[in-house]
Amino acid sequence: MSWSVRPLSAADTPLVQDLLAGSPGYTSRVFGRDVGAADGAAVLSTMPPGASPAAKTVWGLLTGDGAELLGLCDIVRHWPVEGTAHIGLLLIREDCAQQGLGRLLHDSVLTQLIAEGSLSTMRLGVVSTNAEGADPFWEHLCYVPSGEPRPCPDNPAGASVRTWTRPLCDAAGLHHLELWTADLASSAPAWNWLLTTLGWQARRIPGWDQGRVWHHPDGSYLVLEQSDAVRGERADRLAPGMNHVALRVGSRAVLDALRADAPAHGWHELFTERYPHAGGEDHVAWYGEDPEGIEVEVVAP
Model's pTM, two decimal places? Predict the structure, then answer.
């Protein structure tokens, strides 16, 4: 499917109204009612208290011919504080769900915001009556809950709303790294221990049993997959291609503790006699191999 992302205007109100009509579950869960005739116009014009109308942009994800709106993302810049971009709504048409379009639209919008150069934090609110579906989506995009739930004035059922935030990261950084394994059952526990120890968060993708995913708070993520196309049984760090993965740890004390625990979690230490300066006298790091020979370097300040 071809698509495009562009800012929407008042002239696009019929498209927004059609999108809402094609996604009635959202309005029902959040507002406890059916989609209203004026809801499309409200999405394009409604502002949070104290925000400037100039701070609002609603981006639309459209089919290649521009005839259909598949989703939208409502952004208010510098609200509620300077440097924060608030997502008022990110909605994908119900018959297009579970196709990766939500992430596609989200990442496209973040790229636009990064280019503006004045924002550092993303923010949104999840209404409790919509949380069952929304929470896993935002967790997958590395948002975390912030603060206590508060009453949601627009929900007649007395629902609450909770704020979620994440850093707005530079698009020039690492997006993700995918590693292949010949034996997921052997390698996944080793990687899960290492990455969660270093502050990454494990995410399971429902229905996908051939891999595991871990997300970093900066927005990057690492995939470990047992593909049907994998060749061989071990990685060769001396062959052309990737030599090793380098990760950060917060302190020398944590590095020492990680080194002590690593063998029990399937890691084989490299360059033991030169620890912690195998990379040079001014470089503090631990080196190890996973059960299939993939090398990791963990660097301390």
Answer: 0.61
pLDDT tens figures, 115-134:
888 999 999 999 999 999 99
Does residue 111 contact residue 171 with C-beta atoms inside 8 Å? yes
If one counts every other C-beta atom within 10 angstroms of the C-beta of residue 1, the result is: 8
Q: Which residues contact 275 (CB under 8 A, 6 or more apart)?
A: 259, 269, 286
